[in-house]
Design brief:
The structure is a single chain. With 290 residues, the protein is of the alpha+beta class. The chain has 2 domains: 191 residues, Transposase IS200-like (Alpha-Beta Plaits), CATH 3.30.70; 69 residues, DnaA protein, C-terminal DNA-binding domain (Chromosomal Replication Initiator Protein Dnaa, Chain: A), CATH 1.10.1750.10. The protein has a 5-stranded antiparallel β-sheet with strand order 2-3-1-4-5, with helices on both faces. Strand 2 and strand 3 form a beta hairpin. Helix 1 packs antiparallel against helix 2.
Length: 290
């Protein structure tokens, strides 16, 4: 049986959800996440359309996209194919990375839009991965809170209606704090299932949250530094110290870049080394290749 025909309507907003094939992770590192979003942003910028919200979880992702002249299905197909090739090459895997096809809902009311923006950003919180929405680095809360995102710039970004400016920031906070979400009836659904049961249920701390915490535990700053100083003849304390020795500086900057690539914030890295965020940014630019 073929997939149902999708209706993509110009200038309408759509909620997109897609998962990793067989429930496997879509992202293992910072580099994976920035690559996915960069590919999607580039394709939307090139062919038309906008990103209005996103949340990149571990085994799945949520997007709020506005369609222009080119159907979103075509844009997603290209971006997802490109990401699949990147992911397989980087991690030595084969086959489909993203589950096909993505689930799609058209946004037909303000109530759905506002509830959706709140729900999308609460995903990590309700999954037990963080204590508050702004603790989760891989979603679009930066834009809604009026802050500069420290890991990506989106050319195709467009605020959803009603979320611009100071009033929009207040509406965003209310939508996130409220925690209740309006879900449209089946007439708003365009996809492969009549209901999104897994999206209408409250997420409970479970396998994904535990996997996230375990992965973060393996990437503690001290563990990254410890593994990278092995064989250099230096200790972590020497690398953290004030020395301007060229070899020590080289190792220090390389470790900074690796910490950032693994997903740590620049401010946390700066504190670990007792350096300024500017020093961390210079190291990232030199070694990360991003």
């Amino acid at each position: 049986m073929g997939y149902p025909v999708r209706e993509y309507v110009k200038n309408f907003w759509y909620h997109i959800c897609t998962r990793g094939q067989r429930g496997e992770p879509l992202f293992f590192s910072f580099t994976d996440r920035i690559k996915y979003l960069s590919l999607l942003d580039a394709e939307l910028s090139r062919r038309g359309g906008n990103i209005g919200s996103f949340c990149l979880m571990t085994t799945h992702l949520h997007l709020l996209l506005r369609m222009a002249a080119v159907p979103l299905g075509e844009i997603l197909q290209v971006a997802h194919s490109q990401y699949g090739k990147f992911f397989n090459a980087r991690h030595g895997t084969e086959g489909h990375v993203l589950q096909k096809p993505p689930k799609v809902k058209i946004v037909l009311s303000d109530a759905y839009l506002w509830g959706l923006v709140g729900y999308l950003h609460r995903n990590p919180l309700e999954a037990g991965m963080v204590n508050q929405v702004t603790d989760y680095r891989w979603s679009s809360w930066y834009w809604f809170e009026g802050q500069e995102c420290d890991w990506i710039t989106l050319k195709s970004w467009l605020y959803p209606p009603g979320f611009e400016g100071p009033a929009g920031r207040q509406r965003f906070r209310e939508a996130v704090d409220r925690g209740d979400h309006y879900w449209p009836d089946g007439r708003s659904y365009i996809g492969t299932e009549a209901q999104w049961d897994q999206l209408t249920k409250r997420r409970q701390p479970g396998r994904e949250a535990q996997a996230y915490k375990e992965r973060r535990g393996l990437q503690e700053l001290k563990d990254i530094a410890g593994s990278m100083v092995v064989g250099t003849g230096y200790t972590i304390e020497q690398i953290q110290g004030p020395s301007r020795n060229k070899k020590i500086c080289f190792i220090r900057h390389k470790i900074m870049a690796e910490m950032y690539t693994e997903g740590h914030k620049q401010a946390d890295i700066a504190r670990f080394f007792n350096r300024t965020p500017r020093a961390v940014r210079k190291a990232i630019k030199k070694f990360s290749g991003l």
